[in-house]
Amino acid sequence: MKTSMRTIVALPGEGIGPEVVDATCELLMGTGLPLKILTPPQGSPLPEATKRAAREADGVLFGAAGPSTSLVVAWLRWEMAAWAGVRPIRFFPGMRSPLADPDGIDYVLLRENSEGLYPGREGELAEIVRLLPNLSDRTGKTLKDFGTEGRFAVKVVTPRGAQRIARFACDLARRRQQRGKPGKITLVTKSNVLPRTDGLYDEIVGQVVREAGLPFEHFHVDDAARRLVRFPKAMDVVLCMNLYGDILSDLGAETAGGLGLAPSGNFGDGWAYFESVHGSAPDIAGKGIANPTATILSAALMLEHMGMSAEAQRLEAAVGHIYRDGKVLTPDQGGTARTRASCGCARSASRAATSPTCCRPARPTSW
Ligand code: NAD
Q1: Termini Cα distance of the chain
Q2: Angle at 19 between CA 23 and CA 73, to 5 degrees
């Protein structure tokens, strides 16, 4: 059966974002899949026409945000309410893990993307002291005891937010069970210090997972950090509150081999976009040496979401081949290859796994 043409909107962001997105788009076009890639103008904030194109597209691939494109990711993630951040942590043999025995690391870190301290509600301490002078911590110290010089940040959690991410985690765990994984959910909070806010997640997530009949465990974030290093293979679906997920996904990525390897898919109600976990990496931007793997694997998650599962699997298999082969690796993985060479190699590996139907010039369709 012939697959119909799908449209992807590619937004590069800044720093290494354009380098890894361009290379991944070349790779996608080179596979011969029926994909039309649009690269509408980015701007910060995003132009309305670009937002419309992204909303109408079958897939949205983002590069990386930096200081001048933070409004792009703010739209993709917060304004469009992509509340579930799916961040697979998976070791492919040949990746440069710092662990002695990383073979078999394969879990998903699920980050609640929309609550907690993000995207940042801050102010002057004097303002909140005026409003809530007697708000006290668990030792009885009130806000006014801090004086008025300083700043504050507000953490918000809701039962609705906790319930929907818990249900999402259960769906994910059940899908993993079908692939022979344990289907276990590990909840990460800091409810020993924040029994009301983080404690609400303990209560609600615990209840939803127990009702779903899935294996469940809970760790405080400090203990969880240690466990992700010491026992990563015991993890299956690690559900983290927003800030903890942000931090632990970099840690998890590093156990598999590095930040240049970690993809993500971000899902909301009727909305999804895909991006690497890493940022704009100003220290290596413009040098042509950024590892495109995280973006390629994000593109694989995007293809999966677009209903192209077999194609997504072939792309992942191509990445596996590159690392097993070990000949075309970027410097972060101990090689000397450049971003484009690494993507070119993935394209060849992916083509070898698909029918060689297309040799079109590897250029995304312009807006
Ligand atoms: P970063 O993720 O950009 O880089 C951290 C380190 O990892 C750097 O040494 C970098 O060279 C390395 N690295 C990252 N991606 C790599 C790749 N593909 N290949 C090889 N090495 C790679 O984090 P940072 O330096 O703390 O932040 C830089 C900017 O990115 C900041 O403005 C930050 O806010 C932003 N940021 C954006 C996102 C996002 O777009 N979702 C995520 C994290 C950080």
Answers
A1: 29
A2: 110
CA–CA separation, 341 and 218 (whole Å)? 43
Atom of ligand 1 nearest to the CA of 276: 41
Question: Measured from the CA of 291, which atom of ligand 1 is nearest?
Answer: 19
Confidence of residue 358 (pLDDT cuts 50, 70, 90): very low
Region 214-235: mean pLDDT is 98
CB 115 within 8 A of CB 241: yes
Given CA atoms 184, 253, 120, 224 in this order, what sign does their dihedral have?
A: positive
The single residue listed with the structure tokens 């909140």 is 128
Contact 293, 102 (CB under 8 A): no
Q: Which of 280, 338, 342 to mutate to test the pocket of ligand 1 (most atoms within 8 A of CB)?
A: 280
Contacts of 79 (CB under 8 A, 6+ apart): none
Cα of 330 vs centre of ligand 1, distance in Å, is: 16
Beta partners for residue 271, in sequence order:
268
